[in-house]
Amino acid sequence: xxxxxxxxxxxxxxxxxxxxxxxxxxxxxxxxxxxxxxxxxxxxxxxxxxxxxxxxxxxxxxxxxxxxxxxxxxxxxxxxxxxxxxxxxxxxxx
Length: 94
Prior knowledge:
0% of the residues lie in helices and 50% in strands. It is mainly beta. The strands form three sheets. A four-stranded antiparallel beta sheet has the order 3-4-5-6, with no helix packed on it. Strands 7-8-9 form a three-stranded antiparallel beta sheet, with no helix packed on it.
């Protein structure tokens, strides 16, 4: 939910809406870069702004970020790492 221009707005996440692989959500994790990670029993979705991307197809129940990297822990004990792309600022060329 956000508040902007004197109005509240929200986004629903459901399998029927096409923005989650499953309605069974294990966790919601915000990282330091402003992304939201939603872990389901059918994979992990990265929410950035108004975009959702399926980034991990394993059943995971935990996420943790360290710097620009995020790690997922699967239900069978496997730890996987998703590297974040660096953010570049526009620069004027002299």
